[in-house]
């Protein structure tokens, strides 16, 4: 069956004469330009398994339902398109450089780019409002999927065979600034490019289901927020992703992950996340030379406030060195027990042991060395004791 684009436009313009089911064509070859721009037809338009050699123009048109399943065409231009219910492009095959240009759509139901949908060019739905779901399972996008500043009521499904590659200078899947009241599901999807996923400033109202097996490339996560624990990836996988597969250090993704585990009561995982974050900050963050040195000292001594017990280990080491120095020097005159007490006295900031009879032979070089060394050890002991208190009370964490 053949039909001209002008005939379809005429029928939709005169939609009052159509049956309530609207215009339904199956397997038709559409000749000429199918231009439905600015057509207001509050009835369904169904062009199932139809073929046309020219782009389909739908900008600023209005339909109650638009079903283009199985469409074969160079492209679909649908800027400002409004559909009361669903927009279906399942199984469509589009071959132009810009396969779908659908900025600022208003869809009262769901959008389906699934079940064999294939776009050789870019697909752009940026700025659109979709009340239901965006379904892309089984869809193939060879030049990227751009969903910037999208608003979706129920969820985005990039799952079960969704394959997105390319994207040019942008990410394969670009979701920056998108708001989803429900979930984002990436299970069994595949995303490949230099930057595979751009999730900057995305807000997910419910769960984030994002296994990392299908992500072939870097990710951008600055400003991403979600409810509950992210699913389908372990804490270790998240630590590796944030440390090695993001373009630069950013505190927010680490804080979001730690906050999710804090809310779930996983204190051990929170400490691991925070310590890994500090390692990433030292490796890739913008720290001055002295800031980097102090950061390293904090990490080694108290684990940036999350492992204050390390400071006690260092303090015990200082005391051991002090005792060993005094006992082996031969410059301290008193019994062995009193020498141990003397060593603890000079190195311990708070605890004092009776060693009043001990004297140091300051005339001998070894005595002078012991005296100077014990002063240094006392400074170190005070420092480690202070770091322990600061770490235990959370002061180091607040200043990290």
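^ Assign residues to that structure.
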């Amino acid at each position: 069956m053949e039909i001209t684009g002008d005939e379809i436009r005429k029928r939709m313009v005169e939609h009052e004469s159509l049956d309530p089911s609207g215009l339904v064509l199956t397997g038709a070859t559409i000749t000429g330009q199918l231009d439905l721009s600015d057509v207001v037809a509050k009835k369904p338009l169904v062009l199932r398994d139809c073929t046309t050699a020219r782009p389909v123009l739908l900008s600023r048109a209005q339909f109650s339902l638009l079903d283009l399943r199985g469409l074969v065409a160079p492209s679909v231009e649908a800027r400002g398109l409004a559909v009361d219910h669903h927009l279906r492009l399942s199984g469509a095959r589009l071959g132009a450089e810009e396969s779908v240009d659908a900025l600022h759509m208003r869809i009262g139901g769901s959008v389906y780019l699934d079940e064999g949908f294939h776009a050789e060019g870019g697909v752009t739905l940026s700025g659109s409002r979709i009340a239901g779901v965006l379904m892309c399972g089984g869809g193939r996008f060879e030049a990227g999927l751009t969903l910037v500043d999208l608003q979706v009521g129920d969820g985005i499904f990039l799952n079960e065979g969704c394959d997105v590659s390319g994207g040019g200078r942008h990410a394969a899947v670009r979701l920056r600034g998108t708001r989803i009241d429900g979930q984002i599901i990436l299970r069994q999807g595949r995303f490949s490019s230099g930057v595979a996923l751009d999730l900057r400033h995305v807000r997910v109202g419910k769960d984030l289901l994002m296994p990392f097996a299908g992500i072939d490339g870097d990710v951008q996560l600055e400003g991403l927020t979600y409810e509950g624990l992210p699913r389908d990836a372990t804490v270790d996988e998240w630590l590796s992703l944030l440390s090695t597969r993001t373009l630069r250090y950013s505190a927010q993704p680490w804080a979001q992950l730690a906050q999710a585990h804090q809310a779930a009561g996983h204190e051990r995982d929170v400490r691991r996340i925070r310590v890994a974050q500090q390692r990433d900050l030292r490796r890739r963050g913008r720290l001055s030379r002295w800031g980097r040195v102090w950061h390293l000292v904090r990490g080694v001594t108290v684990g940036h406030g999350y492992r204050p017990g390390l400071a006690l280990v260092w303090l015990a080491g200082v005391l051991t060195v002090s005792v060993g120095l005094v006992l082996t020097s031969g410059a301290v005159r008193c019994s062995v027990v009193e020498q141990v007490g003397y060593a603890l006295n000079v190195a311990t900031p708070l605890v004092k042991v009776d060693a009043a009879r001990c004297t140091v032979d300051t005339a001998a070089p070894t005595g002078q060395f012991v005296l100077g060394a014990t002063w240094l050890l006392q400074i170190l002991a005070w420092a480690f004791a202070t770091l322990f208190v600061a770490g235990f009370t959370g002061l180091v964490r607040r200043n990290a």
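DSSP finds nine helices and 36 strands in the chain.
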